[in-house]
TrEMBL record:
Keyword NADP in record: no
Short name of any one Pfam family annotated for the protein: Cytochrom_C
Protein name: Cytochrome c
Domain Cytochrome c: 72-172
GO molecular function: electron transfer activity; heme binding; metal ion binding
Taxonomic lineage of the native organism: Bacteria, Pseudomonadati, Pseudomonadota, Alphaproteobacteria, Rhodobacterales
Entry keyword Iron: yes
Naturally occurring in which organism (per UniProt): Palleronia pelagia
SUPFAM superfamilies: Cytochrome c
Amino acid sequence: MFDTMTLTKIVGGFCGALLVFLLGAWAAEGIYHVGGGHGDEEQAYSIEVPETGGEEVEEEEGPTFEEAFEVADAGAGERVFGKCRACHQLEDGANAVGPYLYGVVGREIGVADGYSAYSGALSEQADVWTPENLNAFLEDPRGWAPGTSMSFNGLPSVEERANLIAYLDQTDG
């Protein structure tokens, strides 16, 4: 059924169709863009947009971290910790990809028994993991400590951060 001549005809037909398509595209480009390069001409029709008057829209700000931390729910923080569980453990000394988080609130930055993969960028920012330092770090890890090896993008919600820090704070009693 298929011999060499039939296969040659099929391949030749595809090549011919491709050649016709390329020549058609080249001809259309020449017809529609006679004047030279793209975008050299003036725009034929402009829509004028009135200025807004410089009024600034106030963004509705949520609670501050201090306000959110005062009413933080450790139970909700346990659910938020699910995002951290891939790289961190809560058991004392149980390091994973990241250091263990047992007793992290109040612990010296860059110090976890048995964990030596710290990048050094963290200890340049502060000395102790206070709730405020943890909040700033968890909001944008690479923004707070440029060069950190933590690849997490951060928690944008101040309530989630406050709940997580409250949960981490109660793990060591």
